[in-house]
Amino acid sequence: MTKRRRTPSTSKVRRRQLGFKRKGDGRHQKRIRRPDPSTLHVNPTETNLTGVAGLAPFGAFIRELGVDAALSRSLSRLKTGRSVIYPMAAQMRLLMDSALAGEERVFGIEALAVDPLFVRLAGGVVPSIDTVYRDLCRFDEEALEALHSMVVDHGLDWDADGRPRRQVAEVPFRCSDWPDSVRVIAVRTRDRENGKQIYLWEGLDYTVQVFLTNEPVEAPEDVAARYDLRAGIEPLIGDLKHGWGCGRVPSHSFNANHAALLLKLLTANLMRRYVLDHVPHLASWRTPWLRRALILVPGRLARSARGTKLHVPERSQLARWLN
Hints:
This protein is α+β, with helices and mostly antiparallel strands. The chain is 41% helix and 10% strand. It has helices spanning 10-17, 55-64, 67-75, 88-100, 109-112, 116-121, 129-136, 141-153, 220-228, 233-244, 254-278, 287-295, 317-322, and strands at residues 49-50, 166-171, 183-189, 207-213, 299-304, 307-311. The chain has a 3-stranded antiparallel sheet with strand order 1-5-6. It has a 3-stranded antiparallel sheet with strand order 2-3-4, covered by helices on one side. Helix 3 runs antiparallel to helix 8 and helix 8 runs parallel beside helix 11. The longest helix is centred in the last third of the chain and has 25 residues, at 254-278.
């Protein structure tokens, strides 16, 4: 009887060629070795890549609010003449963009000077940090007062219909057994940030609080702010200190330090309005998380004959909002 010779199967032949390793089984035949880091050459990325794509929509938002125009009206007098290359208002917007990107000090601008979007928003050229330091030292009392007024104005909350979210008034009410010095301050607001939601009546948008004080001359708004924020002031201070670097001063000049602090406070207030207007579901997030979601977003600048377009990842929080 003749024995039939068996031929190897195709799969066995393929496994012999692969060193008896199944294709795709994830096992390696040679030991993995990490490369020598000294042999790797670090080169700059493409010149059209940015890491702060969120600066563009935020800049459009505050431009519509009139912030750029207000800075120009208030600060242009500090630098005059035909030899001015970097206008004062543009320098302050540069510092605001830097604060949005998470740079707490003036010299952080050097790290952002290689970002194409940051450079484009700066006007095409980022000045030296010495120039920025000198411009901060130009602030006088009048300019500081104007900047302080902008911080206060943009610290107020307004809804989509232009109505204030928070209203404060002194109520002419007094019980018979109260001292004559007692004042009644009433506050109603559409959004409460601290504590539980408290409603006096169902179906109404406003939440009402009442404060009793013996402060004789303080404005009702200041009384309400001081009493209402007493319990929640520590988280706010912590966010300003660690999220915006308000505890860091740029120089030995008092006016320069004051101006830098006001710019950071103004930027923080504008960021809060930006979130409340466009992504209110993120209003409870702290500044570092908001910065990662809305500002520090990778993107690519695409230039064509029709202009410049900014492309961002379609799954990013910024893209989901813009689309």
